[in-house]
Design brief:
The protein is α+β, with helices and mostly antiparallel strands and about 240 residues long. The chain has five helices and twelve strands. The longest helix has 18 residues, at about 45-65.
């Protein structure tokens, strides 16, 4: 623990705590690692302080006679930020999705690899002043066409996407209207030629447009880590 105060031995107390571990006949010290609290915040001085503390930890571990095989500290943001913290291993998470941790600017060319897709199951017409969804939060101001998509908060979609987010259908953005339901959402496809069975992309590319996890996170005031982690277990995974 070099400053995040979550798990691990305190960096400034190792000479008292580590000898007992090293004396154990049932344990081998195979790796030493820490975790940065502010790797994605270039204005925070804590990152450099934690790096210096970890260097001290490694010196203390060696002085106590331990020879761990692995030393690691860098998550995605730290991997991009400072090669001095690469050590023997790095721990990319968000980078594996092809997403640069905000607010970092892309330091390497990445292609987002995750697509979250569904399909249109119904297309309905709404008359002016008719509503759709729980709470009647969306009222049609004109003759409106909506597409019903079988994806909802049980699949990990955030309620705040209603009235803010969009999906891609036929290569065009269709605003999410009404409310995000447990198993369904509604998208405004007025003026579009949409039919049941059409692919709906919630995250990913369709045609020349893309909605990525960073954009979705910005839309709801969240972070891309939450977006990719909350995709529901009932969604079929296809690895290509």
């Amino acid at each position: 623990d070099t400053g995040m105060n979550r798990l691990g031995f305190r960096f400034d107390n190792l000479r008292r705590t580590l000898p007992e571990v090293l004396r154990s006949e049932n344990l081998d010290l195979d790796a030493v690692f820490t975790h940065f609290a502010t790797a994605d915040d270039p204005a925070s001085p804590l990152f450099d302080e934690q790096r210096r503390r970890f260097d001290r930890v490694l010196a203390d571990v060696q002085a106590l006679g331990a020879r761990p095989r692995y030393r690691h500290a860098a998550n995605s943001a730290a991997t991009l930020r400072d090669p001095r913290v690469w050590f023997d291993r790095v721990r990319p998470g968000l980078l594996l999705y092809g997403i640069v941790p905000p607010p970092s600017a892309p330091a390497i060319e990445l292609t987002p690899v995750m697509t979250l897709a569904s399909c249109v199951v119904a297309v309905k017409g709404m008359r002016p002043r008719e509503v759709t969804g729980y709470g009647a939060r969306f009222s049609a101001e004109r003759p409106t066409t909506i597409a019903i998509v079988p994806a909802g908060y049980a699949d990990g979609l955030d309620l705040r996407l209603a009235g803010r987010g969009a999906v891609l259908i036929r290569g065009r953005r269709a605003p999410i209207v009404g409310s995000v339901c447990m198993d369904m959402l509604m998208a405004d496809v007025t003026g579009m030629d949409v039919s049941p069975g059409d692919e709906v992309v919630l995250i990913g590319r369709q045609g020349s447009d893309r909605i990525d996890a960073r954009e979705m996170a910005d839309t709801i005031g969240s972070i891309p880590w939450e977006i990719v982690c909350r995709v529901g277990s009932r969604i079929e995974r296809v690895y290509a």
